[in-house]
Amino acid sequence: AMEAPVQRHRARYKSPGGPPWRETYRRRCMERLRSSRAKLLDRYRQAGEGPCGAAPGALLVQEVMEQEWQELRDRLPGLRGEQPMEQMLEDPDELAVLEEIQQELVLQEQSVIEEYERSLRFDEECLNAMLDSLDATDRVICPVCRKNNLTVKTHLVCCQCGLYISTQDMTEGKLRSLLESTLTEHSQRCLHNPEFTVTSGMEEEASLLMSCPV
């Protein structure tokens, strides 16, 4: 008679849908991880700048799972007590559900990092192409769109992408030298690739601005 409630308890969690809290918890964990993309990439960059520079393991998964577990526990009466999830879920089937969700979150985190790495590689290839063009000829690739050659005149620098800057006594050689020295100075202090934009105020003329996302 004592074993009957335990058997019913296990049977309920071995149902095809799993524990009743499974889908709610899984969905909220995925949403929290997606909304924490900026935080994840910031931790990834910090881990990459460590002494070894080794690829980090899961950076946010455990934190996300614990935060969502606390919120779920407060809302669902079936999840009792104040213990952490590992102590509360002693049933092997319940723990298996947690492990399954954890693996799914780890894969999601890895896909975000891989997408970020692909973006970095693309930026680096574009930057290298611009530097190669600076070395090969006086023609200068637009640092904003990284596709078209700039048109450089004495009082004007412009590009098909919309870049339009008034200048004084400018030549392609001078502009190339300015870009080279600025990029070299930045690379001596930072390993990340800078970005170029055109900026202007209400009464100011347009300027070319180099900034670093890090």
UniProtKB/TrEMBL annotation:
Residues 141-213 form the RPA-interacting protein C-terminal domain. Residues 8-47 form the RPA-interacting protein N-terminal domain. PANTHER family: RPA-INTERACTING PROTEIN (PTHR31742:SF1), RPA-INTERACTING PROTEIN RPAIN (PTHR31742). InterPro entries: RIP, RPA_interact_C_dom, RPA_interact_central, RPA_interact_N_dom. Pfam families: RPA_interact_C, RPA_interact_M, RPA_interact_N. One of its GO terms (cellular component) is PML body. Its main location: nucleus. This is RIPB protein. GO terms for biological process: protein import into nucleus. GO terms for molecular function: zinc ion binding. Residues 60-130 form the RPA-interacting protein central domain. The keyword NADP does not apply. It comes from the Eukaryota. It is found in: Nucleus. The keyword Lipoprotein does not apply. Keywords: Metal-binding, Nucleus, Zinc, Zinc-finger.
